[in-house]
Write a structure and sequence with these properties.
19% of the residues lie in helices and 23% in strands. The protein is α+β, with helices and mostly antiparallel strands and 345 residues long. The chain has 2 domains: 209 residues, Collagenase (Catalytic Domain); 103 residues, Jelly Rolls. A 5-stranded mixed beta sheet has the order 2-1-3-5-4, with helices on one face. A 4-stranded antiparallel beta sheet has the order 8-15-10-13, with no helix packed on it. α2 packs across α3. The termini are far apart.
């Protein structure tokens, strides 16, 4: 692709944002907004392909493998059924490339796609596109929308460029994908990474400041060092499984001693098949996820996020005798006391 060419861009799906109650302390708001798109570490994400060329599917598999190899504590597993997949991937060439962001995919019906690729993924730009869309699914926003980037746009030139072929975007699409700044509370640190895999390529005349990008911005392609650092911060290593995870007994409370962003895992092995309630307690903000352990593979069953509310995360679910389950709790905000716990009954 020539330096002055306008590439086709990712048209990320709008965030599904639950409003926070008014009056929350700034620190509490920031922690919730920073973590609410992220998966609990150790999550096994299942992906499924709609019909598409074999080479394009392989490019996506390779991109998942590249993210995993950092290493990060998420697992990516291809499945043969859309109903079994949290991430459903199409190759509709008329629909551009896009993804939902992070855990927003859980709110999308299983009959709908959560990611699409609208151009060839087998060249360098396509490989970066595959990494980029998966980055969205892992909870990463567009890097040029980082409020710390200090970018001053030639806005009308941006609207004109992206409104023309090959993107043909509306002004709303241009604003939401380029000009709109994300909240500072959703950004780790204060550093803009112009080489991020989540950064667009921009031609000359679109960026006014920083002046060195007035002639255009062309990231190196692939995962940058800061991309790797950012992702490993949220998903460090491999989460423990099996006997290393403590067993949570029925009616036995477990204390949670977590810092913001940390998580705890507990095994549940019910003695009878019936409806159970699993709940956190304490004045904290958490997300709680229930998995079934099927021959070592964690299958997502249900989740609850109590961030910003006065209630606690709670799940009512029928657990079956002889089966194994795992509950994973991630802390957003520890509250005034810093004390919380978990129980099922």
């Amino acid at each position: 692709m020539a330096a002055n060419d306008t590439p086709r861009y990712c048209d990320v799906k709008p965030r599904i944002i639950e409003p926070l109650p008014p009056g929350l302390p700034d620190t509490r708001q920031r922690l919730i907004q920073l973590l609410r798109t992220k998966w609990v570490n150790g999550t096994e994400l299942h992906y499924w392909f709609a019909s598409g060329p074999a080479a394009q599917k392989q490019a996506v598999r390779d991109a998942f493998a590249e993210w995993k190899a950092l290493p990060i504590g998420l697992v990516f597993t291809e499945v043969s059924s859309a109903a079994a997949a949290e991430v459903r991937i199409a190759f509709d060439q008329a629909d551009g490339s896009w993804s939902y962001v992070g855990r927003d995919v859980l709110g999308i019906p299983t009959t709908e796609m959560t990611m699409n690729f609208g151009w060839d993924l087998t060249d360098d730009y396509g490989r970066t596109t595959a990494l980029h869309e998966i980055g969205h699914t892992l909870g990463m926003p567009h890097e040029h929308q980082n409020p710390f980037a200090g970018i001053l746009w030639n806005e009308e030139a941006v609207y004109a460029s992206l409104g023309a072929p090959p993107n043909n975007w509306s002004r709303d699409q241009v604003f939401n994908n380029v000009l709109k700044k994300i909240s500072p509370s959703e950004v780790v640190g204060s550093t803009w990474d112009p080489n991020s895999v989540m950064e667009y390529w921009f031609g000359p005349g679109l960026i006014v400041q920083p002046a060195q990008y007035a002639a255009g911005l062309r990231p190196a392609g692939g995962l940058s060092d800061l991309d790797k650092q950012y992702m490993k911060q949220f998903y460090p290593g491999d989460a423990p499984t099996g006997p290393k995870v403590p067993l949570l007994g029925e009616f036995a409370s477990a204390k949670l001693k977590l810092a913001p962003g940390e998580q705890a895992d507990f095994r549940i092995e019910p003695a009878a098949s019936r409806q159970y309630r699993i709940s956190t307690f304490g004045a904290t903000d958490t997300v709680m996820v229930l998995f079934e352990d099927v021959a070592g593979e964690l299958r997502y069953l249900a989740g609850d996020d109590d961030s910003g509310d006065t209630r606690n995360a709670m799940l009512d679910y029928k657990l079956l005798e002889g089966r194994k389950y795992l509950v994973r709790v991630r802390l957003y905000w520890a509250g005034a006391s810093g004390k919380s716990g978990l129980m099922y009954w």
